[in-house]
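Pilot study result, target chain (181 residues):
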Amino acid sequence: MASILRLQSRSIENQEVKRLFEESINRVLSISATHEILAQNGVDEVDIKNIINKVKENMLYLTKSGKAVIHINVKGDSFNIDSDKSTSIALVVNELLQNSIEHGFNERETGNIEISIRKGILYSSISIIDDGIGFKPDDVNNVSLGLRIVKNIVQDKLDGNISIESENSGTKIYFDFKNNI
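Predicted structure:
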């Protein structure tokens, strides 16, 4: 599916439409990250750190032609979660990385993003922290399709909460999710 979208996007000249195709390609690849690992291992649970690293690799590959050189560091705990949760988390991380890369580093040559994974007893959490230019969450929350997708997935699919802190020295987005029972 991603290959078909990629082929079709090559013939598009309108940059806004091309950007929307790239966002769709990233979403498809984030979903496929979980299913690829599941197919290789023949199990219904995957290591969340492996999934996030796969999303990171796809994102870096697809955005390498961008203006800024972005460094993404994944750190924290490795633990298994079921395929439904891992697919939802992959989509959330993909959206947040995409927003950070697309909007956080305008007119900059480099940028850093840190993804931190923490295993808890009842809930686990993921933080995505960048050193970008920041934004006003109240100005973006109601108009951003990506953030609406993220909030809906975190609340409805992951049984979790999300918080956003942003200032001109960067943005920190934290979300948690209920562990497998």
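One observation from the pilot: The chain has a mean pLDDT of 82. A full batch analysis is planned for the follow-on phase.
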